[in-house]
Amino acid sequence: MALMTVNGADLFVEEFGAGEDVVIFTHALFFSGQMYARQIARLSGRYRCVTVDWRGMGRSGKPLGGYDVDNLCRDVIGVADALGIDRFHWVGMSVGGVAGIRLAAQMPERFRSLAIGGASAEAEPIEKVVKYESLLLQGFARDPESVVDGLLPILYGEPFRTDPARAESLARERALIVANDGPAVARASAPILRRVDIRHMLPHVACPTYIFCGALDGANPPEKSRTIAQGIQGCRLEVFDGIGHQPNVEAPDLLAERLLAHLGDAAA
């Protein structure tokens, strides 16, 4: 598929596979729906998989506004409605996980299950907001390569970054981040970094929920996922040893297996 105009933005949407059960994938900052390629290759044999690139990121349009998390949620619900999808499974990493929590709490009738990775339900500390905003607003305009140098240790665990056998994969990830539209990603990131605390929403998530994170996550350390798990009744939490913020790339087959198991359990 290609661009869909939804909620005042041109959103890039792709579909893979077929079937009654739909899985919507939402991605992390700096990336696109393509970050789930390895997982979708496994899941699309059983499920209709839909990826949505957030406004301002990936292959979607770059509007001047509308980047608060509530509006990002409206974007995805608009896509689901346009595609005739009533209920779905949600897989979201980082901000995709934050959006999933909000929607699952506010629109429980739409959710078959929820899987969230490397997310945080808490507001970001102001010192972290200032650090990242300075890095993104100024760095991408002046020297994107230096921005990436600062981001890699936050986004990827040391085993992935230092393993010669993973050098090609790391180079691909680096190129994806450098390719971001600097002003657009700065506009998109500011409201995400300044999002509100949503821990009060956690008890209202009622669907089967799988929470995963990397033990070496430098963006949202495991205690953030543990806080989420403590608030959602009956959820399952898994911490991947030796993995950073991006299990989809650092442990792609393991994540695919875990998602298949989670989706199967949710349908049982």
What attributes does this structure have?
eight-stranded mixed sheet, 45% helix, 268 residues, alpha/beta
Question: Would you give an account of this structure?
Answer:
With 268 residues, the chain is an alpha/beta fold. It has one domain: Alpha/Beta hydrolase fold, catalytic domain (Rossmann fold, 3-Layer(aba) Sandwich), CATH 3.40.50.1820. The protein contains eleven helices and eight strands. It has helices at 37-43, 69-82, 95-106, 126-142, 144-155, 158-162, 167-178, 182-193, 222-231, 247-250, 252-267, and strands at residues 3-6, 9-16, 22-26, 48-52, 88-93, 111-117, 209-214, 236-240. An eight-stranded mixed beta sheet has the order 1-2-4-3-5-6-7-8, with helices on both faces. The protein is globular, with a radius of gyration of 17 Å.
Distance N terminus to C terminus? 31 Å
Task: Output the number of helix runs.
Answer: 11
The name of the CATH superfamily reads Alpha/Beta hydrolase fold, catalytic domain
In the sheet with the most strands, the strands line up as 1-2-4-3-5-6-7-8
Instruction: Based on the coordinates given, report the CATH architecture.
Output: 3-Layer(aba) Sandwich
Beta-strand percentage range:
15-25%
| Net shape | globular
Total strand segments = 8
**Radius of gyration from CA coordinates:** 17 Å
Structural class label: alpha/beta
CATH topology term = Rossmann fold
Estimated helix fraction: 40-55%
The count of domains is 1
Domain AB hydrolase-1: 22-251
GO molecular function: hydrolase activity
Pfam families: Abhydrolase_1
Keywords: Hydrolase
